[in-house]
């Protein structure tokens, strides 16, 4: 049997790269150095973050179309920074001290342009080690975009050091994916929605903002006095909004379910009340909104370092789901992902390990769920498991473990073993990785917008958009 570990240990190390200077005595008039860089959108964004220069000429494609260059262009000093890079790393290199720099900007640099920076030594002064260099930046057409002169103090001692590895930079616009979801609802009709006990500013504002975006027609259910006090708190007018006056949160939840059963509303939205208060009348066998499907909560997360939306289920309702409940949890998550435009959702069934292990029940459930998908008991998605969390979301981790899978490293949906695990994963991504979160409950006759009391208006709007898209993409589920 081959010893793969031994092979890994004897593999030759990657060659170390060095950075080396040219001392004053080594430099000759006429010496040159250059580098080339293709301008990417990330270069502009990173320069804007670093400098604070958010001129719409550089940041806003619509504005740039109407500007004199009719396209997004780089900040002028981005090219100046490239000149500095050549002087500091190539000629003269490490130990160089900048004294003076003149720049003349001749032509704009647009996205996709290749800029070549070339510096040429034109004069030396032995008295003070000053070196003067012509600096020129040209584009891929040979046109000069920047030219000028630099005066530096050249180093007098040789320096040769390992080249410092730059950290990875992940640029992420908060809420961008959620904005896309909300934009997708624009052509859809607003959904009549029972907003249950919206007796604080945040929950009421979320409902009213969703109404302003034509996502819902809100029906506010709760004590009128408290709802109106919340409206005063956020300075909003309720003149054109229907209010159903009930004495308390329990009555509000019961009224909302009654209206849903009567077909008066197509969604429920949680306000200022506990989740169990809202769901108690929903799950009532005689008068609730139960269907043949188990209800489950789905987190929709926009994670800065992940290349696509990530769904996690169940992290809020089913505490220790059995195999039958997990089947419904998986199917609910697949149905939601498909309603949001993912043609074949990739479902990772999480456990602590990636092998079927009898002493770890979640690995047995994962294997069984995969077989159920193969037999048509779960449809519409691509399942694999058990997978550890790292193997589910990291291609490099999956490759290191030798896992060959169309799901590993590319999961759209993470199915967790139990509520505790799911809640911890989701909240770690929110509070440590800066993820934005939205949440809905599926499996009832209509979707339920279920957000945390700590969620802001953006999360509430995104949750509403997700539920609205689901309503218009899925047939109504019949009650048993």
Essential attributes:
disordered N terminus, 480 residues, 35% helix, 18 strands, single chain, alpha/beta, 11-stranded mixed beta sheet, elongated, 5-stranded antiparallel beta sheet
Summary?
The chain has helices at residues 4-10, 41-51, 56-59, 61-66, 76-89, 176-184, 201-212, 224-233, 249-261, 275-282, 323-339, 361-374, 389-393, 395-400, 419-431, 457-473, and strands spanning 18-20, 32-38, 97-105, 114-125, 130-138, 144-153, 160-162, 191-196, 216-222, 242-245, 267-270, 296-302, 310-313, 346-350, 382-387, 413-415, 436-442, 448-449.
> Between the first and last Cα atoms, what is the distance in angstroms?
58 Å
Shape: elongated
Which class best fits the helix and strand makeup? alpha/beta
Work out the number of β strands.
18
Q: Could you describe the largest sheet, including whether it forms a barrel? A: 11 strands, mixed
Please give the share of residues in helix: 25-40%
Mean pLDDT: 90
Structure report:
- By secondary structure, this protein is α/β, with parallel strands linked by helices.
- Helix content is 35%, strand content 22%.
- It has 16 helices and 18 strands.
- The strands form three sheets. It has an eleven-stranded mixed sheet, sandwiched between helices. A five-stranded antiparallel sheet has the order 2-4-5-6-3, with helices on one face.
- β12 (296-302) and β13 (310-313) form a beta hairpin.
List the helices and strands and how they pair.
Elements: H1 4-10, E1 18-20, E2 32-38, H2 41-51, H3 56-59, H4 61-66, H5 76-89, E3 97-105, E4 114-125, E5 130-138, E6 144-153, E7 160-162, H6 176-184, E8 191-196, H7 201-212, E9 216-222, H8 224-233, E10 242-245, H9 249-261, E11 267-270, H10 275-282, E12 296-302, E13 310-313, H11 323-339, E14 346-350, H12 361-374, E15 382-387, H13 389-393, H14 395-400, E16 413-415, H15 419-431, E17 436-442, E18 448-449, H16 457-473
Parallel strand pairs: 8-9, 8-11, 9-10, 11-18, 13-16, 14-15, 14-16
Antiparallel strand pairs: 1-7, 2-4, 3-6, 4-5, 5-6, 12-13, 12-17, 17-18
Helix pairs in contact: 6-16, 7-16, 9-10
């Amino acid at each position: 049997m081959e010893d793969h570990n031994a092979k890994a240990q004897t593999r030759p190390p990657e060659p170390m790269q060095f950075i080396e200077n040219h001392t004053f005595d080594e430099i000759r008039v006429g010496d040159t150095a250059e580098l080339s860089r293709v301008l990417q959108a990330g270069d502009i964004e990173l320069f804007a973050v670093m400098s604070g220069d958010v001129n719409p000429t550089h940041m806003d494609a619509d504005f740039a179309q109407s500007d004199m260059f009719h396209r997004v262009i780089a900040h002028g000093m981005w090219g100046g920074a490239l000149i500095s890079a050549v002087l500091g790393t190539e000629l003269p290199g490490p130990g160089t001290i900048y004294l003076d720099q003149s720049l003349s900007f001749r032509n704009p640099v647009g996205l996709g342009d290749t800029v070549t920076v070339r510096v040429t030594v034109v004069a030396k002064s032995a008295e003070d080690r000053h070196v003067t260099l012509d600096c020129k930046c040209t584009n891929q057409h040979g046109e000069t975009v920047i030219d000028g002169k630099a005066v530096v103090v050249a180093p007098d001692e040789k320096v040769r050091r390992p080249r410092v590895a730059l950290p990875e930079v992940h640029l992420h616009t908060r809420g961008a994916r959620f904005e896309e979801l909300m934009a997708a609802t624009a052509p859809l009709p607003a959904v009549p929605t029972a907003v249950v006990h919206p007796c604080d500013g945040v929950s009421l504002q979320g409902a009213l903002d969703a109404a302003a975006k034509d996502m819902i027609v809100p029906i506010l259910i709760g004590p009128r006095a408290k709802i109106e006090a919340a409206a005063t708190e956020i300075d909003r007018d309720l003149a054109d909004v229907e209010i159903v006056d009930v004495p308390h949160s329990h009555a509000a939840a019961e009224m909302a379910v009654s209206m849903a059963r009567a077909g008066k509303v197509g969604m429920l939205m949680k306000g200022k009340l506990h989740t169990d208060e809202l769901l108690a009348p929903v799950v009532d066998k005689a008068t609730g909104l139960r269907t043949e499907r188990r209800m489950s909560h789905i987190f929709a997360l926009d994670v800065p370092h992940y290349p696509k939306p990530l769904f996690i289920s169940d992290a809020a309702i089913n505490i220790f789901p059995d195999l039958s409940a997990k089947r419904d949890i998986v199917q609910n998550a697949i149905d939601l992902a498909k309603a949001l435009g993912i043609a074949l959702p990739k479902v990772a069934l999480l456990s602590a390990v990636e092998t079927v292990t009898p002493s770890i029940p979640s690995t047995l459930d994962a294997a069984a769920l995969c077989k159920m998908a193969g037999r048509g008991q779960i449809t519409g998605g691509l399942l694999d498991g058990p997978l550890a969390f790292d193997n589910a979301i990291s291609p490099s981790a999956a490759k290191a473990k030798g896992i060959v899978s169309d799901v590993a490293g590319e999961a759209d949906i993470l199915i967790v073993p139990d509520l505790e695990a799911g809640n911890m994963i989701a909240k770690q991504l929110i509070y440590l990785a800066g993820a934005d979160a939205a949440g809905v409950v599926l499996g009832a006759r209509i979707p339920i917008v279920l957000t945390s009391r700590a969620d802001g208006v953006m999360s509430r709007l995104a949750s509403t958009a997700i539920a609205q898209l689901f309503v218009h993409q899925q047939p109504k589920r019949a009650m048993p």
